Amino acid sequence: MGPATLFDKIWDIHVVRSIEGGPDVLYIDRHFIHEVTSPQAFDGLRARGITVFRPGKTTATADHNIPTREQELPIKDELSRKQVETLNHNCSEFGIEYFGLNHPKNGIVHVVGPELGYTLPGTTIVCGDSHTSTHGAFGTIAFGIGTSEVEMVLASQCVLQPKPKKMKITVNGSLQKGVTAKDIILYIISKISAGGATGFFVEYCGAAIEALSMEGRMTVCNMSIEMGARGGLIAPDFTTYEYLNRIPSVESRPDFKSLLLRWRSLKSDEGAVFDRELEFDASKIRPMITFGTNPGMGMAIDDTIPDAESQGEGKASFLKSLDYMGFKPGEKILGYPIDYVFLGSCTNGRIEDLRAFAQFVKGRKKAPGVTALIVPGSKRVEQQAIREGLDKILKDAGFELRQPGCSSCLAMNEDKIPAGKYAVSTSNRNFEGRQGPGSRTLLASPLTAAAAAITGKITNPADLLKN
Which structural domains are found in the chain, ordered by start? Predict the structure, then answer.
């Protein structure tokens, strides 16, 4: 046995059986489900006359369809209400832990898992949601699966999965003022494209990654799939242990000390071979923003949109994207008026994100004409924000703290961006119509969103940061 990558170490001990010339049968330690991708999976179990194999390994939460106002009332949208009620019924029938609307542990699935201590280093995690890669921040193999695979995991606690290739992305150096974890990942995606990591599982390392908080690391891993990767992970370290040590359900475990010893071995060995390696200098990263309709179409906020001729075979789709956005090649968008701001999602809906936004707008006022959707990622984040007085800071500046949910990330509730309107969004995708039919999404960090909210236009947050 030669030197092994972190990915190999975790994957190989979870392989139940390898199918010759085919995928591996991979054991799954934790399965998360929500209301959108699970109903057909439960129907499949019923049709086969079987039950959930290990119900204690599955956790459910309602997040995609739920409203972010008046959650104490019945959900108005009939389809959304039916999906949430179906999840409740399925979990009750099959004995699965469920955090429904108004439950104190409710929230976005990829926010809830880590904060409750369900996301632990060295484990495998799946969910019928592409941004399951978020959990990789803890040194886990975490990836999204389809509905048929959700049924497979419910039935067997395993999933058929081909082993991905391995990529190492190193980010060394220190970040400039106003640059965040969100800017790091938007920068990387802009450099390698929205398909540049297709077929790979990415390990992030380097001084700039190690300096990030757990919230920042989750942001980076969350958007791994936006460059085509199967997932992303970061080796656990003291920052990881400190985060987990603050979670009562983890810290009080009788085997916590032995777990710590095992977690300390979870790192790639010296000389471990990756299929591809890339390195970036953190000091060159400036606040980022997207200008197109895929996350790879990003640039430094004070740059100009690239020339169409530089796109080669992608010229036609590039111009189509700009036409949808109402932009032109060679144009600067710094100072461009915006209509909406969205702070939230499994990318940037954690307490650290709300703190950063609130601190930025403190003593300032929301720009007239800007509609802001400030949505915590979970009930726990919401309550923490209220305890810290962030709701009052936001209110004084003209903002409203809403109730938790996926909200305007994918607009499956009422939180839609109207056609033709521009939204500076801290979410993860800027596809056509993602935030509502005809909506125009510009992905950015919480600081850049805050700067846009108080100026009413695309603004470099570094120019407004208080020293």
Answer: 6-161 (3.30.499.10), 165-284 (3.40.1060.10), 290-463 (3.30.499.10)
pLDDT digits (tens, 9 = 90+) for 300-322: 999 999 999 999 889 999 999 99
Burial 139-166 (b: 16+ CB within 10 A, else e): bbbbbbbebebbbbbbbbbbbebebbbb
Report which of 137, 138, 167 is spatially closest to residue 279, judged by C-alpha positions. Answer: 167
Look at the pTM and tell me if it is higher than 0.70: yes
d(CA 316, CA 171): 32
Q: Dig out the tokens for 55 from the structure.
A: 């119900």
What's 76's DSSP letter?
S
Please choose, from the candidates 139, 167, 166, the residue with its C-alpha nearest in 3D space to the C-alpha of residue 29: 139
* 251 in Cβ contact with 221 (< 8 Å): no
**Which pLDDT does position 318 carry in this prediction?**
97
- The b-or-e profile of 28-58 (16+ CB within 10 A means b, else e) is bbbbbbbbbbbbebbebbeeeeeebeebebb
Split at pLDDT 50, 70, 90, the class of 113 is: very high
The pair of structure tokens assigned to 72 is: 């104490």
CB-based contact 113:135 (threshold 8 Å): yes
CA-CA distances (angstroms) from residue 432 to 322, 324, 344, 437, 439?
A: 11, 8, 19, 8, 7
Q: How many CA atoms lie within 13 A of 122 on its CB side?
A: 13
Q: Do residues 137 and 234 make contact, with C-beta atoms less than 8 angstroms apart?
A: yes
Pick the closest to residue 17 from 9, 26, 8 (CA basis). Answer: 26
CB atoms within 10 A of CB 320: 13
Which residue, 187, 190, 220, is CA-closest to 287?
A: 187
Token pair, residue 209, equals 């990654």
Measured between alpha carbons, how far is 47 from 266 in angstroms, rounded to an integer?
41
pLDDT of 467: 55
Q: Which residue is associated with the tokens 């020293």? A: 467
Q: How does the average pLDDT of the chain come out, rounded?
A: 97
Is residue 1 predicted with pLDDT exceeding 80?
no
Which amino acid makes up residue 29? D
CA trace torsion 223, 385, 402, 132 (10° rounding) = 20
| pLDDT tens per residue across span 236-266 | 999 999 999 999 999 999 999 999 999 999 9
62-65-67-68 Cα dihedral, nearest 10 degrees: 70
Strand partners for 204: 169
Alpha helices (H) in 141-276, listed in sequence order:
147-156, 181-192, 207-210, 214-222, 238-245, 248-251, 256-263
Give percent of the chain above pLDDT 90: 97
